[in-house]
Every structure is written in structure tokens, then in C-alpha cells.
Amino acid sequence: MHRLPTVNGADEQSQGEGGLPRLPPGRHGLPREFVIQNQRERLAAGLIAAVAERGYRATTISDIAAAAGVSRRTFYGYFKTKGECFADTYERVAAFLLETMAEASEGERGWNAKVRARLEALVGVLAANPDLVRFALAAPPAAGGEVAARYRDLLDRLLVAFREGRPKNLRRPSEAAEHGIVGALAALLVEKVASGEGERLPDLLPDLVELVLTPYIGREPALKVAGRT
Prior knowledge:
The chain is an all-alpha fold.
């Protein structure tokens, strides 16, 4: 199971910027594997925080290192470029979101219920970490190039996740319509966070359930699954 690149639970004296715990100074005696994991986690969390605040293009390696509470030299010990750090972190975030959604739907019976469970898990994670919306859904389209391509790939993977287990007898919208579904979903999440209501993302669940299911099962059945009838 992947995990989010965030670190919690340190006391205030051991924390750097953004509440990230610092390693003890000097010869701390920690295993090399622990040090490497800790520093990679810090760099990933620092990147997320910096990109969420400044956008991808405006974020510098110095910004990432400062947010992570490490030196630029430490950054270059793991990544050659900002783009390489972004690619590594973005994939970890995407994998975590998709795995969380899949696990949430395992105990549900019926495709409609599975879709609702996946959406509920998604908004739950993002509500607890609104910076992930800024990092993964808001910043990439504005950056263009390879960064925007990773965003489009994430939307494609979300679409595949929603379609998983869909009964074959259900109508299927056009490919363009299906991509419109996940694009609209991302836009709703970004808008909610941009308005300062990131912690209230779960309020969008009925809207998202209706949005995703209506093209496949019709509006009235979708409203029922969304809990609106």
C-alpha cells in the first residue's frame, strides 16, 4: 500500500517548516534506510507544499528544500531536477489515491455502490489534505508540457477506476463524454478548494455521484444512489 508523502506526529521542537519533523543533528545513529526514507518523504512533502502555494513553474528547488527543511545539496542527492522530483511525487500521490479508492469499494455489492464508495474515499483523503488538490489537480494544467501530461494521465486512471466492474449491459457514453466526466469532477474539487472550503469537500459527494453515474444509468437512478431521492 502506498502512503502519502507526509510526516506527522513530531513535537514542535523537532519540526521544520510545514510541521515536518527534522532528523536529529550530527551522528544520529539511525539506519541509512531510515534516513533515506525520511529525507525522500520530506522532499516530497516540501514539493507538494511549495507547488500548492506557488504553482509548478514559480516553484524553485530552493523553495522545495526550504519547505522540506533540508539543504539544496540533499535535494540533489535524490533528484537531478525539479521535474524529476515532481514526477516521482506525483506518481506516489496518484498511486495512493487510486489504491485508497479501490480498497474502499472492496466490500460493496453492485457497481453503483462501488462508484459511490470510491468517490467518498477520494473526497475524504483530499478533504484531509487540500494541498493535494492544488498540487495534483490545479497546478499541472497551468504548467503545461510533461507536468500537464501527468495530470491528464491521472484523469484517465481515475476514469478507469470508476469504470471498473461496470455491468456490460449498461450504456456507455462516448469517449469524449467520459473524459468530460472526470474533467468536470476535477474542476469541482479545484473550485471548492480555491474558495477556501477544502475541508468541506465531502459536501460535494452527492454532486459527484450524480455526475459520474448519470451518463451510465440515467439521472433518476443516479440521484437515488447519491441520496437525493
